[in-house]
Write a structure and sequence with these properties.
- There is one protein chain.
- The protein is built from eleven helices and 14 strands.
- It is 31% helix and 26% strand.
- It is of the alpha+beta class and 338 residues long.
- Strands 13-12-9-10-11-14 form a six-stranded antiparallel β-sheet, with helices on both faces. A four-stranded parallel β-sheet has the order 3-2-1-4. Strands 5-8-6-7 form a four-stranded antiparallel β-sheet.
- It is globular and about 55 Å long.
Length: 338
């Protein structure tokens, strides 16, 4: 079996976790990325079944040609920006996995909201906007609102807008960001309260939930994530399963990893963002440390061989990671977490 993975993760620790797990995959794995990106990992050692192939660009035609030439059995991406081109190639080569239409509903936050609203699964008011249209759009909302790019991740361009005077500074902030400059925006009513995410796999429509992550973020207006606490036996687990089945059904999602960010609004689950990939910020490591589940290997083995993973809960630990918000410097001491 020959599995292609489009785009390297930007975090080398996560790349090592992926390749260490996939060393046990019964087949060959081909990471496809630009020559410049592959050069950044050239000096590292990898298992013998892991290969790196350079592409001229992320254009679908280019990736399709490479996939055909390498006789790939499937192509996936574990990175947000690689999800859509991978889906487009799968469409053209009749590979197993989400089609472009379904993938777009997780990558495009506006399309996701439209699908959830049609199924009466969100009470968030929302509207698409450009930075130029933002003043007029905000007049149709009760402030504060969340404004963010339609198709970016990692808290890029996310901001709570409490008054019209913030728009100019927000526009300047977007212009200074290579990814966010000129992008489409979505305006949403602000949902207060603690934020969580649920991590798992969709296996031909069957849910396998690894657990729930409680999130720590900076204060308003940016909400940058500064820590995670992962619990395989979280108190929300009993009612998450039916709620997620409804949500994934409305979006047409059937086979993928998932990282679903949510809050509780009037006793109901309200989606903040939803991704058809594993969570970042070391969440996959927390899962492995908690229960021993090797999520990348488990996804690959189901996709290629139909092997159903077992989620270990008995004796599983609660694990956490915290990120320092300070600038670069020297660590002088390390103390245990309370």
């Amino acid at each position: 079996t020959r599995l292609g993975i489009l785009q390297l993760p930007y975090n080398l620790d996560i790349l090592k976790q992926i390749t260490t797990q996939l060393a046990h995959f019964n087949g060959h794995v081909f990471f496809i990325d630009t020559a410049a990106r592959i050069l950044t990992v050239k000096e590292l050692e990898f298992p013998s079944n892991i290969h790196f192939v350079a592409c001229d660009s992320y254009e679908v035609a280019c990736i399709q040609t490479l996939s055909t030439d390498m006789r790939l059995d499937n192509l996936i991406s574990l990175a947000e920006l690689g999800l859509m081109p991978a889906a487009q190639v799968r469409d053209r080569l009749s590979m197993r996995g989400h089609c472009t239409t379904v993938e777009r509903k997780s990558v495009d936050k506006y399309e996701m909201r439209v699908a959830l609203a049609k199924a009466s699964l969100t009470r968030v008011k929302f509207e698409k906007s450009t930075i130029g249209q933002l003043p007029d759009v905000l007049r149709r909302f009760d402030l504060p609102v969340i404004v963010k790019p339609v198709s970016l991740t990692g808290s890029i361009g996310v901001e709570l807008i409490s008054n019209h005077a913030q728009i100019k500074a927000y526009a300047n902030r977007l212009k200074k960001n290579t990814y966010a400059n000129g992008c489409e925006l979505i305006v949403e009513t602000f949902v207060p309260g603690a934020e969580f995410s649920v991590e798992g796999l969709l296996l031909d429509g069957e849910l396998r939930i690894y657990g729930v992550t409680e999130k720590e973020t900076t204060e308003q207006p940016y909400f940058v994530e500064t820590g995670h606490r992962f619990d395989p036996n979280h108190r929300f687990m009993p009612w998450l399963h039916p709620a997620l089945e409804e949500i994934f059904g409305a979006l047409g999602m059937k086979i993928c990893p998932f990282h679903v960010e949510f809050k509780i609004m009037d006793g109901r689950l309200e989606i903040i963002e939803l991704h058809s990939r594993f969570g970042g910020d070391f969440i996959t490591k927390l899962i492995e440390y908690s229960s021993g589940n090797k999520v990348f290997l488990e996804y690959a083995e189901f996709l290629c061989y139909g092997n159903i993973p077992c989620v270990v809960r008995a004796g599983a630990d609660v694990t956490a990671v915290k990120f320092s918000p300070v600038s670069a410097g020297r660590i002088t001491s390390v103390s245990p977490l309370n």
